[in-house]
Specification:
The protein is an alpha/beta fold and 808 residues long. The chain is built from 22 helices and 41 strands. It has an 8-stranded parallel barrel with strand order 1-2-3-4-5-6-7-10, surrounded by 7 helices. Strands 30-29-28-40-34-39-41 form a 7-stranded mixed sheet, covered by helices on one side. Strands 16-15-21-12-13-20 form a 6-stranded antiparallel sheet, with no helix packed on it. α5 crosses α20.
Length: 808
């Protein structure tokens, strides 16, 4: 492992973009953090005691965070702390107290999802670097440029982007860019997934995802009885793990992020060490790929980054650890599995056999070779291992827990690094206190030399005077520190007598002071806080004037219901239409919306190549509406259009993820007139000025992966959705419709039941209601303002979602 350079952009004050490629490692525990640093990470990211997107990780309390920051900074490693969840209204004060503690703990940056948190942080601590989490779904150069104006210093890009898109953004926008290069992939755009939330109240936007996507699913035609995929391809939404180790050299100056805060220290060390070696060494090392396969993985893919086809992107066989090939089964007899090994088997290794829809396995606590008990067995041997299950003869066996690999990684992960060269100068003379000065070999203005004095005076030696070799021996004892001795000067005047214990104490005191000084990377934060230096950001000091939402906001996916609604807008009603990419290619459609006074709603995802069609359509729309245009955004990055159309009225849809008053206020400060709060918000939390959803077939996922094309053809753009409608069915038999966009093969997975709260109308604080129309009856109710004459809640076709229970 190479020793990291002392030149650290964070320590010197971060530039607008990274000076060098950064290897960013996960730290779910202190053991994993130490392993990451010792493996060569340039930075680590970790979660505090709450409000992080990996709630089930061990995480860190504030005392542990301070310890972690000191440990990392002393070893030239930056520390970023995740506060990347959506925040409930009553939690905002607690979040800000936590962030204040992080600020004073010398943390290098916070990773955020909630726009309201960013808004409050920039008012209080304008110099505290904020990174936009991948949960904010920034996915184009246009979005990222807007993120910079909000005050973000770094953006973590969506994992759906290709290499060319990432490089274009990094080369175009003067901001730090971070991308995931290894670990678990989500099938949905991060920050746009409500599946776990709607099914069981455990929100991915709150760090509590239950991963229902990793369970078995079946693909059916709409209302069909038999699954299309039969019994073989059941893990339809479980991607393989991302592995870009052979591509990272194509990403200079970018932060390369490894996923894995839920993984152990052995995983962290193995993966970080492999990526460190690839970054530092000029030649490929085939052993690295083998090492990566021996720690947890679901099989590897280049994912969307490498534009891999669905057939190699997904792991249809299993959602668990793939492991490595171990050998073949020769059958089970008398409770013993006979295995012909193709790989080494050690006591404690775990063995797995997979079949369509499941797996069985055992731990090799006992290994028998010709009846003799063994601690290990080599490739080519045939051994017996006790097992409780039947495994067919010829079945492929896998090793899913490699004790040898884990022990090696854990041991290496504890081997400390000493990245800092120091100079020591020791002086002693009888009748005076001894003096020791310690300084960095590569001096910096920030880190001052440290001088300490012996607590007792040096005496005149009677028998054995202190020798230079004895002083050198004591001052060279730097084991367990971050320092290595680069230069030592010893000045002894006359015959000196000083106990060795005094010299050792001087060494410990000087090095402790020097390390403390070096590890404090942001000493001027208090001074900067008092100065309140202005940063370039869009949040103005005064909010823009609010234009209230109307009582009813009807959202349409299909204009066929317009015949059931009056053409002109009523005083208490507004109509919104979700633009599909097919409609965006039809500029004449802009006139239809303009004439009828319908507010166009932009797609949630607009990739860089798609913005030209959007802008062309908006130009056509502008010709008909002039300065009286209206537009509803579905992603905060789309608010960049406010500069081009300053007189238009802007709205923010539920996918912008507003869940608290600070986020609402931030959007208003950016020019939004009306905000529809997230469907994850508890109904009682939506204030009078917020838009509350009372009726919607909620989109649970938005994905670049199409299960239709994946199952039927193994690739996208198959055209199957143009001929038939399809659904997914879970293990309980619930059916989830698929809404497809044939133009770009983007897919939404819809809820199995309609979100319904019309019967709770009088119990809400909000006086503005969002309803998504999917029938002629609902369209007429909207037209006649008769929603209050609602049908009763029907649990067979309706759900309350999170409106009453809230989310975890």
């Amino acid at each position: 492992m190479s020793v990291k350079s002392n030149e650290k952009s964070v320590a010197q004050g971060s530039p607008s973009v990274l000076r060098q490629t950064e290897l960013l490692a996960p730290a779910g525990s202190m053991e994993s953090l130490i392993a990451a640093v010792n493996a060569g990470a340039d930075a680590v990211y970790l979660g505090g005691p709450r409000f992080g997107a990996r709630r089930s990780a061990e995480n860190f309390d504030f005392a542990a965070i301070e310890e972690a920051v000191h440990f990392c900074h002393a070893r030239n490693t930056a520390v970023y702390v995740t506060v990347n969840t959506l925040i409930k209204p009553h939690e905002m004060d607690a979040v800000l107290r936590d962030i204040e503690r992080l600020y004073h703990s010398d943390v290098d940056a916070v990773i955020l999802q909630d726009l309201g948190v960013l808004y409050e942080v920039k008012k209080r601590w304008p110099d505290f670097p904020c990174h936009a989490s991948t949960q904010m779904t920034f996915h184009s150069a246009e979005d990222v440029a807007f993120a910079k104006t909000l005050g973000f210093s770094r953006v973590v890009l969506s994992r759906e982007l290709s290499l060319d898109e990432v490089k274009h953004i990094a080369e175009t926008i003067d901001i730090e860019i971070e991308v995931f290069v290894h670990g678990a992939l989500c099938v949905s755009y991060s920050g746009q997934c409500l599946m776990s939330s709607m099914i069981g109240g455990r929100s991915g936007n709150r760090g509590a995802c239950a991963q229902p996507c990793r369970k078995p699913w079946k693909l059916l035609e709409k209302n069909g009885a038999a699954p299309i995929n039969g019994a073989e391809e059941v893990y339809l939404m479980s991607p393989k793990d991302l592995n870009l180790i052979h591509s990272i050299r194509e990403l200079p100056g970018i932060s390369l992020k490894i996923e894995g805060r839920m993984k152990g220290a052995d995983y962290v060390y193995t993966v970080v060490n492999a990526y460190r070696k690839v970054l530092d060494e000029s030649e490929e090392n085939p052993e690295l790929e083998a090492a990566l396969s021996r720690v947890f993985n679901r099989g590897f893919t280049g994912g969307h980054f490498s534009k891999e086809p669905f057939s190699t992107f997904m792991n249809y066989e299993s959602s668990g650890n793939r492991g490595t090939a171990l050998g073949k089964s020769l059958g089970v007899k008398d409770g013993l599995l006979k295995v012909r090994l193709t790989d080494r088997l050690n006591k404690g290794d775990e063995i797995q056999y997979r079949y369509a829809g499941g797996s069985v396995g055992t731990r090799a606590d006992q290994i028998y070779l010709s009846g003799k008990r063994m601690e290990s067995a080599e490739p080519g041997m045939t051994v017996d291992v006790p097992i409780k299950y039947q495994v067919p003869k010829g079945g492929e066996l896998y090793k899913t827990f490699d004790t040898e690999q884990i022990k090696s990684a854990l041991s290496l992960g504890k081997v400390g690094i000493q990245p800092l060269g120091i100079k020591l100068t020791f002086s002693a003379a009888p009748g005076e206190a001894a003096v020791l000065t310690a300084s960095l070999a590569d001096a910096t203005e920030r880190v001052k030399a440290q001088t300490v004095f012996s607590e007792q005076l040096v005496e005149e030696a009677i028998r054995r005077p202190l020798s230079e070799s004895r002083v050198e021996e004591q001052l060279s004892k730097l084991g367990g520190t971050v320092f290595y001795l680069e230069d030592l000067k010893i000045n002894l005047s006359g015959d000196c007598a000083l106990p060795v214990s005094a010299i050792n104490q001087m060494r410990r005191d000087a090095l402790e002071r020097l390390e403390n000084d070096y590890a404090l990377w942001h000493p001027n934060r208090q001074e900067k806080l008092k100065q309140r230096s202005e940063e370039t950001q869009r949040f103005p000091k005064q909010m823009t004037k609010e234009a209230a939402l109307k009582k009813w906001s009807g959202f349409l996916y299909d204009l066929k219901w317009l015949d059931a609604i009056e053409a002109d807008q009523a005083d208490d009603r507004a109509l919104f239409y979700y633009l599909s990419y097919g409609k965006l290619l039809d500029e004449s459609f802009a006139e239809t919306l303009a004439i009828r006074g319908i507010v166009p709603v932009l797609p949630r995802i607009i990739r860089g190549s798609e913005w030209s069609a959007i802008e062309s359509w908006l130009n056509a729309y502008e010709k008909h509406v002039g300065e009286r245009g209206m537009l509803c955004i579905s992603h905060v990055g789309q608010l960049r259009l406010k500069d081009k159309y300053p007189s238009w009225t802007f709205y923010a849809d539920v996918s912008v993820n507003c869940m608290n008053a600070s986020a609402d206020q931030a959007l208003k400060a950016l020019g939004v007139s009306g905000v529809f709060w997230s469907t994850e918000a508890k109904l009682e939390d939506v204030p009078a000025f917020g838009g509350a959803t009372l009726l919607d077939r909620v989109p649970l996922m938005l994905s670049e992966y199409c299960p239709i094309g994946g199952v039927l053809y193994g690739h996208d753009h198959c055209g199957a959705c143009l001929k038939k409608e399809y659904e997914l069915m879970d293990e309980k038999g619930a059916r989830y419709p698929l809404r497809c966009s044939p133009t770009n093969c983007r897919v939404e997975i819809l809820a199995d039941k309609q979100l319904y709260a019309l019967d709770l109308l009088r119990e809400t604080a909000s006086t503005h209601y969002r309803v998504v129309i999917e029938s002629e009856k609902e369209a007429r109710q909207l037209a006649e303002d008769t929603f209050e004459q609602h049908a009763a809640f029907d649990s067979t076709k309706h759900t309350r979602g999170n409106l009453l229970r809230g989310v975890e």
